[in-house]
Structure formats: structure tokens, C-alpha cells
From TrEMBL:
Keywords: Membrane, Plasmid, Transmembrane, Transmembrane helix. The chain crosses the membrane at residues 78-97, 104-121, 127-144, 179-205, 217-240, 252-272, 278-301, 308-323. It is a multi-pass membrane protein. It comes from Qingshengfaniella alkalisoli. This is Calcium/sodium antiporter. Residues 6-144, 183-323 form the Sodium/calcium exchanger membrane region domain. One of its GO terms (molecular function) is calcium, potassium:sodium antiporter activity.
Amino acid sequence: MMETWLPLLCGLILLVAGGELLVRGAVQAAERIGISPLVIGLTLVGFGTSMPELVTSVQAGLNGSPGIAFGNVVGSNIANILLIAGVAALICPVVVARSALRRDAMVMLAVAAGFAGLTWVIPMGRIAGAALVALLVGYIWFVIRQEKSAADGGALHDKSLALAEADPGIAPPHAGRRLLVPLLIALVGLVLVVVGGFFLVSGAVALARGFGVSETVIGLTIVAVGTSMPELVTSIIAALKRQGDVAFGNVVGSNIYNILGIGGTTALIAPSRVPQEIVVFDAPVMVAVSALLVLFAATGLRIARREGAILVTGYAAYIWILWP
């Protein structure tokens, strides 16, 4: 049994550690080059904190495990809403900015519904993947054009701000630091993430076979929660610091990246058909909980502790339904 769990645990540790180093090095290198903080937050930090999900889904797709690849995307979004947003609201009621609700939360709901609908009609091939990635690029471009300062960067900026609050090492480098050092840090982080993704996928496949459950269930649960650990930690820290709006933006921004960036890139590199159980059950659940989060946020522009308890209870029920 230990030989089954060990690769999974090692993979998760390497993914989390490598993702942090990758983001830290990339941000410091970008600061040295002179890229604006808003662009860094929306691109480097956004993709960097989603790198564990990205590498895991791509490697699973290349290994012929679409259940893990797309289960990770859908399962991460469900966990982000029910588990992470729920826990954050239990710690401190989550305040929601009206602009974040009107633009970012509605975009999250729209891309969730669009992805779910897409899986019904066509396989996730390269054309579909390219369309998803193009939508993400367009959305980032729109946000950068619309926002005049990093303080108003919406959900995608809140995603990076949550990480900066959780890890002071993400701050700009000292003036005397050379560019080579942060580049080396980013490279080491990238290597750790790739190796960690390999171990995580291998361990997940072995675990599924050992327990006699489908790879899709493992992808939707253990892999999804494991790769969402950075979002969980950063949202909890934001809630403890009474920055509920940042916690909300972190969840919404992560979900937009997961579907458009990770789902799209996975389809581009390793095209495959989304497993039928995800199409008929989990993807609709993702849309439903996305709508529930928007509904909770719209009532009084906050997610209260009672609503947080409903979200967490919902995640427990979802896991109970999934696990045989």
C-alpha cells in the first residue's frame, strides 16, 4: 500500500514546492525586466499558481488517462467553490465587490456552462483547445485594457494578490539582485513541477487500480484537491487577514484559468474525449455550484458563514456520491 501512496504524496509535495519557486522566480525576473505589476499578476502569477493543475492534466492526457486530465480540471473547480470558498467564508464572511460579481463571477459561470456544453457535442480536440486558450488571452487583454491600476485588477489580480499575501517571497527583488538568480529559481521550480506531475499521475493511476475505482473518480477527488492546495492555503490566509474579497477573487480567477487555460492547453497538447461520467454528472455539477456561488455572492454582496457551511456540506455530499 505504501508504494501506491508514496508517488502520490511525493508528487503533491514537488508540485506545490515547484509551483512556488516557479512563480517567485518568474515574478522577480519580470520585475527586473520592467514589466508592470498588473501584467505580472494576470499572467505569470495566474499561470504559475495553476501550474500544478496544468502539468498534471497535460501529463495525464499524454499518458492516455483523460479521466484524470479533465477530472482534475472539473474537480478543481468544484473544490474551489464548495471547499475553498466555503472554508474561507466559515473563517470570515467573504465580502464581494460589485465589479467582481458583474464581470469576473459572470465570466466564471459562462465559461463553466460553455465548457460543459462543449463536452456534450464534440471531443476536446485541438480546435476546441485553441478556442479556449484564445478566450483566456482575450479576457486577460480585456482586463488589462479596462483596469488602470494593479489595485483594481479584478479576480485575476486577486488571485495573484492572495499568493503575495501568503508568501512574502513573491515581493519584488532587491535592486542589486541580478536577473540570473530569479531565472534559475524559476527553472528549478519548473523542473520540480514537471517531475511532481509525473509522480502524481503515476501514483493516481496506481491508486485507482489498487482501490478498484475509476481514474476519473481519483482525478475528480484526490488529484483535484491536491493540485488545488495552493488556492486553499492562499484563500485561508486571505480570510484570516479579513481580506474576503481577495479570497473570492482567488477562487473565481482560478476557475477561469482552470477551464480556459488548463482545459484548453490539455486539449491542444493531448486531445481526447471527456469521459462520459464527467459529461453527464460532474460538469453539470460544476455549473450548478458556480451558479450557487454567484447567487450567494449576489445576496448582500457577501458570502456569510451559514452559506459557507452549506458549501462545505455540499462538497462532503459530492465526495460521498462519487466514492464507491
